[in-house]
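Dear colleague,

As promised, here are the two records you asked about, laid out in our usual form so they can be pasted straight into your sheet.

NAME FIELD: protein one
SEQUENCE, THEN STRUCTURE:
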Amino acid sequence: MIDFKGLEIWFATGSQHLYGREALQKVQEYTEAIVRELALVKQFLVPIIAKPVMTTPDSIRQLCLDANTAGNCRGIIAWMHTFFPAKMWIGGLKNLTKPLLHLHTQFNREIPYATIDMDFMNLNQSSHWRRTEYGESWKLPRAQHRPARSQRRSLHAQ
């Protein structure tokens, strides 16, 4: 039997400074809310740890290098906030040797079509991994990496 004591999965959100400090603070709150919900999913046998929002290629690369050397990190769950420039992940993913799960979901379950505006879009939409450089980077040889699609309030990965 595998001893899961002390092991963890890191949850990393990608965003950018373009949205400003207030928006990034809200994105960190969204990240922590998603992690709390994932903690309720029985299939995760180890804790999921929210990392700070990643906004630069260097921070992402360092996160991936840190994950590689952290004996207790079993892998990374990545979530792309809004239409984050996914190419910023390529350098980190080239170096990542741990498993990666890309959570392909928006934060809100429902889209308020009657009142939607760019402020809502900038805070709540997620990157569509197959349409980005990030999706293309999955063609790189590496450890187990796969996308998961889900509505945030029904976190059963497909």
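NAME FIELD: protein two
SEQUENCE, THEN STRUCTURE:
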Amino acid sequence: MEVQYQHIAPAAIKVRNLNELITSLIGFVVLAGLYFCTDYFNWWSWLQYVWIGLIVLNVFGIPWTYFVSSPIYYKTFRYGLTDDFIYIKSGIWTREEIVVPMTKIQSIELTQGIIMRKYGVRSIEVKTMQGGVTIPHIVEDVAIKLRDDISKLARLKELDEV
């Protein structure tokens, strides 16, 4: 059976960018605090250069995420579903293909953080004995339908084996 791969939601770019911005701002505040503590508490003076270097990396990380990482992530992440398997493809430098048999699925979770809620997307986490896989940033209606389809197919496969 041929797999029909689907894209994640276009809002994935905005969600990732906003998450990166918040993380970078928190990192900037922490690093600035450490920079000033180095001077105030008379820590080793070379630590100030370390903090400055990390702040510079933090600042360059924001445009990298906005203009390179997030668009590439959106273009390369795909997922597909057949009666027997879940397929996930991702990556640009390291291509990764994951195949999860329906018979191995133990649970399915829908997650939605505050930022994801604002953009109307959810992530599906499919758990197996070996760990699990996540299909991130799917439009809410599609995510709920996909969760229901996976749980129905996994349950049917379980009954077929008995």
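A couple of things worth noting about protein two: The radius of gyration is 21 Å. The longest strand covers residues 131-139.

Best,
R.
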